[in-house]
Amino acid sequence: MYKALFSWKATIICLVLMALLLLAPQFLTRFYIYLGALIFAIALLATSLNLVLGFGGMYQFHHAVFYGFGAYAFALFATKSGLPLWAGYLLAPFCSAILGLVMGLITVRLNQLYFGMLQISLGSLVWAITYRWYSFTGGDDGIHGVPLPDLISSSIGAYYFNLIVTAICLLLMYIVVNSPFGRTFQGIRDNPERCEAIGIHVQRQQLVGLVIAAFFAGVAGTLFVTVEGSVFPELMFWTLSLEILIMCLLGGWFIFMGPALGAAVIISLRTFVGIYTEYWTLILGIVLMLLIFFLPEGVLGLFLGKRATTEGNGGENAPG
């Protein structure tokens, strides 16, 4: 457990990593710059899921709907509203947050598995509407050729924009996790009955957490459009939600930076494995099985657990 909000070791590691990522485009080809920008967006998405899954104990099984909703909101603002393009970046995450609020008001009364199943049902409903509403969303074709501000229309511009926005959002989420609200949220995860008994409004806290996670998922959606210049209904499909969940499990869902690591690994695997085979979903299923049996705490969870044992501090792995 961290002794302070920002330990000096973690700060140095983050600064060094940020410096390396800022310098990376000078040595990378255009393909790897594109891949890096995409990883930043998905890393933010996976971390936003972990905000409610790992730190809140909520079975958020269809988180991708907020990601896709934010992406579509930005694309529609950019192509149909006549507003400045930068306004779309500001407004789209709030659209996802509003969707999170509406879905949360319906689902937050339910516990665990029932909450997750109803999330899947409502998310699938949003996906179906998007998939069929040809006159507004483009239906199964999606929306292509989304205009972007000149500053970030190039691959390098998109890379730096995604990197900076992702870093800021990760910092904000880290502050949330370690704030009084975040401590309460983790307490609800560990023992909701006791929290209710001492006067904490559990459902209200969970609803706030869900809205915050949906907001940052919406930000990730706008970053995806920055990279791809298009949106399509598959961004809201439940299989993507499963992929994001596996990212959290792979990196370590009780570790703040675990999902970001998991996202980098999964996106890289999907990109390079897809060159040689079309059976990516089969490989993903195998990865999930191996995680459940051999690495339930994730890569960072295993590493930090071994380090804690070696140092003899007996500390927990979760930040806070």
Can you give a write-up of this model?
This protein has helices spanning 8-23, 30-53, 64-81, 85-107, 112-132, 134-137, 155-177, 180-190, 192-197, 202-228, 238-251, 258-276, 280-294, 298-311; strands at residues 143-144, 230-231. It has 320 residues and is mainly alpha-helical. It is globular and about 55 Å long. The longest helix has 27 residues, at 202-228. It has one domain (8-237). It has a two-stranded antiparallel ribbon.
Work out the count of structural domains.
1
Strand order, main sheet: write it out: 1-2
Shape: globular
Mean pLDDT: 88
Elements, N to C (H/E): HHHHHHEHHHHEHHHH
Question: In which range does the helix fraction lie?
Answer: over 70%
Structural class: mainly alpha
Summed up, the helix count is 14
What percentage of amino acids are in beta strands?
A: under 5%
Characteristics:
320 residues, two-stranded antiparallel ribbon, disordered C terminus, mainly alpha
